[in-house]
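Colleagues,

For the teaching module next term, I've prepared a clean inverse folding example: a structure given as tokens, and then the sequence designed for it. I'd like students to try predicting residues themselves before seeing the answer, so please don't circulate the second half yet.
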């Protein structure tokens, strides 16, 4: 590493705050807020009062940033050691290690490229070898790339996109294809799946992109996928603290409160509970998609846990009824 270019102080081997923040993928403002509110790090000070960070501190800050972007509250991870932070991040690394290296991917779609490259997946479980901003703008730089999986983002996926996706697959020469969308008609899904592509809704949790790539690779190579193998061994489905009855009680009670946030949040949790059950049914009915649906269940449970905590705090603040075990 070029010490002058990297911003390292030659005499100390330490990074100044601006460079440390950039290397960790943070803004200087975010770093300062995290330090002030959560004591996320304890940098040294130079003779002139400048904050200086060691390489290990920068690495730790990068892990924290990655975990926060995956949904972990900053308050929960700010005080953890590097070893503990690495264990929380292990599911991503373990997927890469299972094949002795990250999955080499080509990303197409401006939003997808931004989320993956800024979200901590790159250089862990995914190796982004090339990118394309738009599906309808094929670049010669994408021709015959050396990659494992082609991942295409088409938020509003329609029948017109099918021929473009096929063309992109032919140009890149990548056999395994993942297409993620937000809205799509059933005939279009059938057309793409008939081509052998893995098509799924854009996941809220970026780690599911890795699982989709892993699934597409396994299907392309003819390897069977283990339905009974937990895809994220260090993450378990969180138990439900607020069941439908408790949430219905909160919705009814919230009608007497001027602020409508408790009612809206309870309704969101009811929808998440319903989706969690629906996803589990899909997993049981379709063995080929079991791995994807199991990962969905894990992601939803993590989101539900965060929202349940918020609901509990809101209910206490507004004097709304909570189940006996949650009352303080």
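(Answer key — instructors only)
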């Amino acid at each position: 590493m070029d010490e002058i270019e990297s911003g390292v102080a030659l005499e100390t081997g330490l990074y100044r705050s601006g460079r440390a923040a950039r290397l960790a993928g943070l803004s200087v403002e975010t770093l300062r807020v995290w330090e002030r509110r959560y004591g996320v790090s304890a940098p040294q000070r130079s003779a002139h009062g400048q904050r200086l960070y060691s390489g290990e501190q920068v690495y730790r800050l990068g892990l924290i940033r990655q975990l926060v972007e995956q949904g972990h509250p900053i308050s929960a991870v700010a005080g953890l050691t590097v070893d503990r932070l690495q264990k929380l991040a292990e599911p991503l690394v373990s997927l890469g290690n299972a094949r002795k290296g990250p999955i080499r991917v080509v990303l197409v779609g401006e939003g997808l490229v931004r989320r993956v490259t800024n979200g901590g997946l790159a250089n862990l479980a995914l190796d982004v070898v090339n990118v394309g901003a738009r599906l309808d703008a094929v670049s010669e730089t994408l021709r015959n790339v050396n990659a494992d999986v082609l991942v295409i983002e088409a938020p509003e996926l329609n029948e017109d996109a099918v021929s473009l996706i096929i063309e992109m697959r032919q140009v890149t020469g990548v056999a395994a294809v993942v297409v993620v969308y937000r809205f799509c008609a059933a005939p279009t899904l059938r057309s793409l799946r008939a081509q052998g592509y893995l098509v799924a809704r854009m996941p809220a949790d970026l780690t599911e992109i890795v699982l989709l790539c892993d699934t597409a690779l396994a299907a392309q190579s003819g390897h069977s996928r283990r339905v009974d193998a937990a895809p994220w061994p260090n993450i378990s489905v969180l138990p439900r603290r607020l069941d439908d009855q408790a949430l219905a009680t909160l919705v009814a009670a919230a009608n007497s409160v001027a602020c409508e946030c408790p009612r809206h949040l309870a309704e969101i949790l009811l929808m998440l509970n319903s989706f969690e059950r629906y996803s589990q049914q899909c997993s049981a009915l379709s063995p080929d998609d079991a791995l994807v649906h199991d990962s969905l269940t894990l992601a939803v449970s993590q989101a539900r846990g965060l929202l349940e905590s918020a609901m509990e705090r809101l209910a206490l603040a507004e004097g709304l009824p909570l189940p006996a075990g949650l009352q303080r």
